[in-house]
Each structure stands twice: as C-alpha cells, then as structure tokens.
Amino acid sequence: MFTGIVEERGEILAVEHLPDAARITIKGPLVTSDAKHGDSIAVNGVCLTVIENNDGAFTADVMHETLVRSSLDKAHEGDPVNLERAAAVGQRLGGHIVQGHVDGTGVLLSREPSEHWTILRFGLQHGLSRYLVEKGSITIDGVSLTVVSVGAEEFSVSLIPATLELTTLGVIRVGDQVNLEVDVVAKYVERLTQAHLAKPSELKGL
C-alpha cells in the first residue's frame, strides 16, 4: 500500500522489451537506500517489485497486464518518473490509500497557471468518471490529489508549486498520458451495491 506522497523524482535508465513483458531499470537513490529484493516501489503510480538493487538504481519486471493498463508500455530511457516506497505500518497517511493498481490512463488536456497554483484538466477513459466526485481523491502518476471538478469524460485538479516542483506533473505537456487510480472505496461500494440495484435477471452473473 502507498499514500500517494511522492518521495523523489527518478529516471528510467533502461527498458528491455520481452515477450508480453518488459524489464525496467530506474534510478532512485532515496527509494533504493533501504530497498531489498521483493520490496514494492510505486513507479508513476504502478506498484512494481524490486528484483535487483545496485548503485542507487533498481530493476523491476512489468507484466503484460500492467503494460496494457498503464503508460509504462511507452516508457523510454531518460523519462522522469515519480517514486514512492510502500507505506510502513504506523507512519502518517499523508495522502490517501493508494494500492498501486492502475485503473486506466488519462491524457492532459490543458494547463491553467496562476500565481499560486496551476489547474490541470485531464481526459479519462470511458467508465472511470463514475468513480470520481468533487473533493474526492484521485491518484495521477502516483500523486495523491483532490478532484476539483468532474465531467462525463474529464476532470480537473489544482496543484500547488511544491507538487509541480517535486513531481513529474510539473513537466508533463498537453497530450501526455498519465496513470490513474481511482479511490478503492468507490470500487468496493459499487460492487457491494450491484446486487441490490440490479434487476432480478441480472443477478445470475453476480
């Protein structure tokens, strides 16, 4: 489990494409300082498992399902990435509960800068907007954020200068793809209420 509070901005050092998978090596001196084989590190919001850890960099395998669901299928050497180690029991939950299980991707539609914050507007895949509510939580490339507004196929968030400086959200451009993870509570509520809201003919599949 993660909290969506990015610890450092790392860099992809290498991408090895394998049949239905990929192996990625990422520079991250802070998150690798105490990392061991088998530990979890969120990379742009995707929970990956450390298989090697050497000289401030770690290597992780990315399976086909993850490549299909996330933007990691487009990862290239030199790309910046947001990094966060798994949360430790007893520490402060600075953001919200983040699983590192990406639900889909979005695309940056616009940036609206002001003196003290910047509003980012994203388009999102069909079906994800039902999990978003104003002032609810959303994870964008591993960053825990609060939804400002939400429509049928888009939503917006407002970022303070610190978030723009410390994460990749400060450098992404219009048209760039991002990973999205909706609030897990919304998904469980939907699943648990389906049986009560569905018509009798629809209950056979539950």
How is this structure best summarized?
With about 210 residues, the chain is mainly beta.
CATH class type of the largest domain? Mainly Beta
What count of helical segments does DSSP give? Answer: 3
Q: End-to-end span in angstroms?
A: 28 Å
Percentage of residues in helical conformation: 10-25%
Low-confidence stretches: none
Instruction: Say how many strands there are.
Output: 12
Overall shape: globular
Named CATH architecture of the largest domain: Beta Barrel
Number of domains: 2
Bin the strand percentage: 35-45%
- Write the element-wise H/E pattern from the N-terminal end onward: EEEEEHEEEEEEHEH
Radius of gyration using CA atoms only: 18 Å
The pLDDT mean sits at 92
Main structural class? mainly beta
Spatial arrangement of strands, main beta sheet: 1-2-5-4-3-6
Which sheet architecture does the biggest sheet show?
A: 6 strands, antiparallel, barrel
- What is the CATH topology assignment of the largest domain? Elongation Factor Tu (Ef-tu), domain 3
Describe this structure in words.
This protein has 206 residues and is mainly β. It has 2 domains: 78 residues, Elongation Factor Tu (Ef-tu), domain 3 (Beta Barrel); 87 residues, Elongation Factor Tu (Ef-tu), domain 3, CATH 2.40.30. Helix content is 13%, strand content 41%. A 6-stranded antiparallel barrel has the order 1-2-5-4-3-6. Strands 7-8-11-10-9-12 form a 6-stranded antiparallel beta barrel. Strand 9 and strand 10 form a beta hairpin. The longest helix is centred in the C-terminal third of the chain and has 14 residues. The two termini are 28 Å apart.
